Amino acid sequence: MARASVKIAALVGAGALALAACGGDSGGDTSPTSDGDAIVSQFPLDGISVAVGSKDFDEQLILGQMLVQAFGAAGASVDDKVNLGGTSVARQALESGEIDVYMEYNGTGWTVHLGQENPSFDPIELTDGVRELDLEENGIVWIGRSPFNNTYGFASSPAVTEANGGPFTLQTMMEYVRDNPDAIVCMESEFPSRPDGLILTEEATGIELPSAQERILDTGVIYTETANDNCTFGEVFTTDGRIPALNLTLVEDPGVNILYNVSATMREEKFNEAPDSFQGIVDAIIAPLDNQRMAELNAKVSAEGEEPAAVANEYLVSEGIIAG
Q1: pLDDT tens digits along 23-57
Q2: How many C-beta atoms lie closer than 10 Å to residue 158's C-beta?
Q3: Distance CA 169, CA 157 (A)
Q4: Residue where a domain stops, chosen among 230, 250, 270
Q5: 209 and 233 share a domain?
Q6: 240 and 164 within one domain
Q7: Distance in angstroms (rounded) separating the CA atoms of residues 250 and 259
Q8: Is the pLDDT of residue 140 over 90?
Q9: What Rg, from alpha-carbon coordinates, does the chain have?
Q10: Is there a contact between 22 and 321 (Cβ–Cβ < 8 Å)?
Q11: What CATH number has the domain bearing residue 18?
């Protein structure tokens, strides 16, 4: 553990420099006027090659393109392997050396990649635990941690929300379903059986969802069917851009569903080629990404049809991370 944990801790200053440079205000035009003004100019990667991957859904495509473009602007020779496939495909590519880095979620790291149980519901504690164990066991470095938490959740349509007088909580949602036999909860196929899925809500509320009130749909269809009131409630990912685009309302979660904050996961060998620069660039990218900002970026792709690379570029320029 000592080989890299001390080094990572020493990079707090680099991360703080990036955060101070990028700030938290995205309301104005902060585009740098030259390469020298861009945040990446403080974190050079000249002479370094890096293969960047990602999973295959909109949020991951955007985050992957952010890494591709920022590392390239810092001088790296970048192999763009964004859109590899699902979680297991991306992780296997990282472990095999096919890629050097991709964005991963702390809850996935803890439960799936490391096979641990009882994850912390404190985002700092969870990420720190994943970071230490994955480095020790697999030589994988976890860089940074996003403010946004793209966890499982439920949403209701504008009509259902209005009839309720405002947002549901998980408790009131399950009580509503229990008391209204015609109410339907739409979910993707694996959610009812996942250990981090429906069972967490049932255990927390003490109410079991009757199978007659379950409807299994493809992930994307759930959003539109909920908006059209064909589903009373729909299982969603909390930073999905279709939530604001379709005026859906998230069911309030008091801390039942597992955390999924994002970090860049990188092979230790590659990270050690330029630790200050990799840390600084990743910190600058993910620091402004709270749930609302990530959902807005996702909506540009999932709802408005923009290309992930274009959305990533607009974000990086607006935050002053790369030159416009």
Answers
A1: 434 444 444 445 678 999 999 999 999 999 999 98
A2: 14
A3: 14
A4: 250
A5: yes
A6: yes
A7: 16
A8: yes
A9: 20
A10: yes
A11: 3.40.190.10
Examine the pLDDT at 22 and tell me if it is beyond 80. Answer: no
When divided into structural domains, the chain yields a total of: 2
Provide the token pair at 289. Answer: 């990404």
Q: Are residues 102 and 139 in the same domain?
A: yes
Residue 261 token pair: 């904050």
Residue 256 located in a structural domain: no
Task: State the pLDDT at residue 143.
Answer: 98
Q: What is the pLDDT of residues 153-196, one digit of tens each?
A: 999 999 999 999 999 999 999 999 999 999 999 999 888 988 78
CATH of the domain at 231: 3.40.190.120
Tell which of 192, 217, 250 closes a domain: 250
Residue 324 lies in a domain: no
Give yes or no: residues 241 and 274 share one domain.
no
Strands 49-55 and 77-85 come out as: parallel
Residue 124: other Cβ atoms inside 10 A: 11
Residue 236 inside a domain? The answer is yes
Both 115 and 27 in one domain: the answer is yes
Residue-wise pLDDT for 67-119, tens only, equals: 999 999 999 999 999 999 988 999 999 999 999 999 999 999 999 899 998 89
pLDDT value of residue 104:
97
Residue with tokens 């499982």: 152
Residue 323 lies in a domain: no
Look up the domain containing 218 and give its range.
Answer: 152-250
The tokens for 250 are 């998230």
